[in-house]
Amino acid sequence: MGLGVMGMPLSWKIGAVVASLIAGMFAWNGISRYLAGRHADEVLRDSARTAELNAQQAKAHARQYQAQLAADLKHQREDLANTYRQVNEKARQYQAEQLIRQNRQRQEDLRVEASYRLDRNQQCAGGIVINRSGSSFTQVVGKNGQPISCKGDTAAEPLR
Q1: Distance CA 16, CA 10 (A)
Q2: CA-to-CA distance for 138 and 81, rounded, in angstroms?
């Protein structure tokens, strides 16, 4: 015949309750550890995903920054090359202008020098320029009305 729970001694009943409580605590402890482990795994996975996303964003940002720097450097090189071209062109123009000015100055110097030279109808006699026209000779006078002095085939002041 079955006595059931009623027929059990009290100490057994207390023992069964205590055993049930201990078993429940072990079960609760196991379940909470399992849930805590799952939660920790999820946190780790989320952290890993976040870290991976951050790394990808950092790489993308670095690529973008590098591309911008490369574009800026290319632009600066182009600007520098244009500046060099402009400077070289200005220098070439300046040199050409200088050459033209020097040639003009040389021509002017030759013209002025030629204006001091006696022509074929003139001669230097006694340090004075003389015009010869056939058999007549006349002194050449300067702006001040005085005879123009000479040496060799060169007069002291312009003749023309």
Answers
A1: 10
A2: 69
From residue 111, how far is each of 107, 116, 152, 158 by CA, in Å? 6, 9, 18, 10
- Give 9's pLDDT tier (boundaries 50, 70, 90): confident
- Nearby residues of 156 by Cβ (< 8 Å), 6 or more positions away: 116, 148, 149, 150
What's the pLDDT at 47?
93
Question: Are the C-beta atoms of residues 111 and 126 closer than 8 Å to each other?
Answer: no
